[in-house]
Amino acid sequence: MIRVRILTKDFHTFQPFIKSAQQLYNYGIELVQPTDKNYDISLVGHSLFQDKKLGSLSKSTEMGLDFLSKVEGPYVLVDGQDSHSLIGSFEVFKESDALFMMKHSLLKDRSLYNEEWVGGRYYWGKSEDYGIKNQNYKPEDFDKYSDKIVLSGTNWIGVPDIQWFDYRNIEKLFDVSAMFQHPHPECHEFELKPSQDFYYNQHRQPVLDKIKHSPFMIAKLYKGRRVPTQTYFKYIQTSKVLLAPFGYGEMAPRDLESAQLGSLLIKPNMNHVDTYPNIYVEDETYISCKHDYSDLEEKIEYAVENFNVIRDVFVSNLRNKYIEQYHEYYLADYIKNLFQKMGVL
pLDDT per residue over 291-308, tens digit each? Predict the structure, then answer.
């Protein structure tokens, strides 16, 4: 039996582990509390070894390394942020004594990490695309450390407890749900200028531009203002189509909510993302649009006009993919194999 201590403030990062505690235990992996003195290895969540609001990447790295220097025994870093970007975590990892680093999602084409992107986010492109110079990031010497940066076997889709509804009894009053945040309030990430919300908002703005004069019935937020949870679900469950543009990352609970509520999911193409489990199959579990949303109008028209014909196919495909991928032992199987491969077990 190996005893694994979880050090974190990150609920979303480790909730799938907590949910799978019994299955992990059955495989000889026992999760123990941060205060437990009897452990073999620690999993350290990203909020403990980086801080985007410190004002600089170097200050955040210094803080993270100082924290890790006080961790007793072997440890593994876990970057549970929703983006494939390595900004802030990579710098700590390569200077630390971590055995390896686990990440929720990575770029499928690892060579793309040798190119610069705004905030390290491939789908945001270059800062020059926004008329701003020299605001791009790439992890230095990525290839030197890449073999020790691995998928965590978790992502945000595995966080919530899922209930399936009889969606055929849900009346669809709206054609399209655009119940996503825009604009996002000011939000900083190291030295990135302007603040990272600028790029978030710029990336999502084309979606609002496309639906502004849409002939279809659209449900959306007023100036991005949040609404009570019950109100939010009332709107999305009565929409035929859920739009899920990328934000600070590619995946969100909204993606699976489409299958729960019997709606069609439209989101930018996910073929660049490597994650496990992975429910995203282009034009089978979701309707894919381009990253710049240039074809969004035609994708919306296709989904709305053919809703009664294609809804059951897409919803069933997504539900079945989730059930197949997120089975009872999915995480325990993955972690056991990963720990064996990395020499932990």
Answer: 999 999 999 999 999 999
Among 13, 257, 253, CA closest to 157: 253
Residues 6+ apart with CB under 8 A from 301: none
The answer to whether 260 and 162 are in contact (CB under 8 A) is yes
Dist CA 104 CA 345 (whole Å): 21
Element housing 305 (H / E): helix 296-305
Sign for the CA dihedral angle at 76, 45, 20, 233 comes to negative
Could you tell me which of 212, 182, 211 has the C-alpha nearest to residue 198? 182
Is 17:52 a contact under the CB 8 Å cutoff? no
Q: pLDDT (tens digit, 9 = 90+) per residue, 66-110?
A: 999 999 999 999 999 989 999 999 999 999 999 999 999 999 999
pTM of the predicted protein model: 0.96
What's the one-letter identity of residue 301? E
Nearest in space to 254 (alpha carbons), one of 239, 269, 275: 239
